[in-house]
Design goal:
Blueprint lengths: L7 H14 L4 H14 L3 H12 L5 H22 L5 H40 L5 H83 L1
Helix pairs in contact: 1-2, 1-4, 2-3, 2-6, 3-4, 5-6
């Protein structure tokens, strides 16, 4: 099970400031890091995942310390928010309760429809002399209201819950994809900068050697 969500506002504010200080794109990596911290179970798993993200633009000497600092801050924020309850579990329970209530509404609506159908059949049997056209005019109209109003609302609510969950998942997946792309671009840029730096050193070394030979 994923770790419960902490008081995200406080932590996100700290994380954004820390990423800015490291000159890391907070828009891309902030949401990705937050998702990793929420999904991974142990501190070791969190640290491995964070190193995989941050190693693209941080030196080996500093990446481990930064990862530990992020995890420590996350843990402290979670400890402070623990008294407010586990937000993830509360959210899941609320959604489950909502779905259960909606299912009950659908069942009850079906029962009402069945009772209405039986009453209609009894009326038709009792007043057999009423024409089919009159039966349809008098009986079908109220049945239409029963058939669609309650059920449609229940199905609409169920659809809304699914859409909310899908949007949350799509948002996490998109953040992960964007961060991965940015990570690759940052890694390529670092390699280019490294090669350019080495090239400048080689040229400077050659110029120094030529000057010494001329003397």
């Amino acid at each position: 099970m994923a770790a419960p969500v902490t008081d995200a506002g406080e932590f996100e504010s700290w994380l954004n400031d820390r990423l800015d200080s490291l000159e890391v794109d907070r828009e891309v990596y902030g949401a990705y890091i937050l998702g990793v911290l929420q999904e991974e179970e142990t501190d070791e798993e969190k640290e491995d995942a964070l190193q995989g993200i941050l190693s693209a633009f941080l030196d080996e000497d500093t990446v481990e310390d930064v990862c530990k600092q992020i995890i420590r801050q996350w843990t402290e924020c979670f400890s402070r928010s623990a008294t407010k309850g586990e937000a993830d579990d509360a959210e899941v329970q609320a959604i489950a309760s909502m779905i259960e209530k909606q299912a009950q509404i659908v069942v009850k609506q079906k029962e009402v429809d069945e009772e209405s159908k039986k009453r209609k059949e009894a009326l038709l049997a009792q007043y057999a002399n009423i024409t089919d056209e009159e039966d349809e005019a008098e009986e079908e109209e109220p049945m239409s209201g029963n058939n669609f109003t309650g059920n449609d609302k229940s199905l609409f609510k169920n659809t809304n819950v699914e859409e909310v969950l899908n949007r949350q998942k799509q948002k996490r997946d998109q953040a992960r994809e964007d961060a991965q792309k940015k990570k690759e671009m940052d890694k390529m840029q670092r390699e280019k900068d490294k090669l350019a730096k080495q090239d400048r050193k080689e040229k400077e070394k050659k110029r120094t050697q030529k000057g010494e030979r001329k003397r």
